[in-house]
Structures are given as C-alpha cells and as structure tokens.
Amino acid sequence: MDNSHYITATNKKVTADNGITYVYREVGVKTGTPIVGLNHLSANLDNWDPTIIDGLAKDHWVITFDYRGVGSSTGKASNSIQAMAEDTINFIHALKLTKVDLLGFSMGGMIAQEVLLRDKDLVNRAILAGTGPKGGEGIENVTKLSDASLLRSLVTFKDIKTYLFFTRTENGKKSAADFIVRLYLRKDDRDKTINWFAYRTQLKAINKWGKENPADLSGIKTPILVVNGDNDIMVPTTPNTYQLKDRLSNSKLIIYTDAGHGAIAQYHESFVKSANEFYGEK
User: Fold this and answer.
1) Cβ atoms of 272 and 245 closer than 8 Å
2) Which of 32, 43, 52, 137 is placed for a possible disulfide with 39 were both Cys, Cβ 3.0 to 4.6 Å?
3) CATH number of the domain within which 272 lies
C-alpha cells in the first residue's frame, strides 16, 4: 500500500493499555502536530472523504482510526459519548502522542468536546464540524431521523448519507452523488462495515448526550473552528452551531450556504483551505 494518499494508505494496528487494538491509517509527513480525525455515527476508516484527508495531508500529518468495537478495532462499542472520548484518549496515548489537533465531524465533534473537557493540554487546536453542544436542540432526534432516512435509502437504493448529509437542492444532490463516489475510490483492503449492534449503541449514546444538561465549555481556551452548513437536519444549525461557537471563548465560525450536515464534504475545497490555514496558525 502507498501512504501518500488516503485511498491507498496501509491499515495499521496499535494496542492501548485498555487492551483494545485500534486500527488506523496515517498520511502526510510525520512532523509537527498530527491531526487526529474523529468521525461520524457508524463510520469506519473508509467513511472519511479522501479529498479532505489528502488535502490536509499536503501540509500536515493526519491520522484516522476506528473507535472500539467499530470497523476492524476490537472490543464492544462504547455506550456513551464520554466513553468514546476516553476511547480516543487511549488511542492517542497508545501512539505515544502528547499533543494533537482534532478534526471532529458530527458525532466526532461531540467526542472532541468531551476530550477537550477531560484533557485540555492534549489538544492544540480543534475543528468541530456538523455538530453541536451537549443537550443541544434536536440532537435527541437523531435516532428517529436516521431510522426514517435508512428506510428511504433502502427504498431508493441510495446511500443513507445522501439524505442525512446534504440538502435536496440540485447543488446538494450533485454534491451527495460526488461524495458517495469518492468514498468508494479505495478498492483494496477496505475496512469492515460497522455491525448493527455497534450502530444502535452509538445511536443510543448520541440520544443520551442530546438529553443531558449542557456542559460548561467556557474554560476551554483551545483555538476552535466551528463549521456547518446552513441547513443541517441532523444537528440543527440554528441554534446549535451558533450556540456552540458562543460557548467557546476562543472560536471562529464558518457557515456554508445551501449545505447540510456534510457541508465539509460539499464544500471540500474551501474547507480544506480554511482548515489548513487554521491548523497552521501560530
């Protein structure tokens, strides 16, 4: 395999002190602060947009991994967002890393917030995309929305992300189709699809997190870039994206127009440029 591009990157393994063996990929030059990607509900290694990962890897060291019990990682799926944050910290420590940047998308953005609350010194910078704060409006509806979209995807023979991540405008539909094609550019050594038990466990974790009392994020001084589309139906942009930005004292905000939950994929060229600038700031 060739580690210069994400679709040909080697699947690697590392075992943490908790006994879990995590499967991961890394691309880019292994210098500076690595970017650790925290992905969405049900995602495995192959669910990262390779255009985004390769775009970041031109200037940065990028690492993606499967949470415990997901894809090719061992163990049972964690049943709370907080447990997934501990999972993430265990993985980072297993790689002997002492400082990382985070790219948290969707559920991964929720996990990133919990990592920031648990270990502020571990994170240099973080991007929180397509996500919202704990207890945010409508987050507890993700299970109902996902189930309805799954049924629709089965009837139409389209990937569920077509309906959950993108607007139903012509621009959104084309972006969805292009994104799904990119997810299948990798032909060899693809990751294992999440099993049904792990998927439902993650859904319950998001539902629970959405019903919990809001967290106090005011103590987080880490530079944060909050990103979303203007019409996110999974984690409603209004008020969640704006509230998340306001609760973080050292944050910036990007809202893409005619875009939904997967705005970073829909506007991947613009997002990569902004992300590289953000991670490169001193």
Assistant:
1) no
2) 43
3) 3.40.50.1820
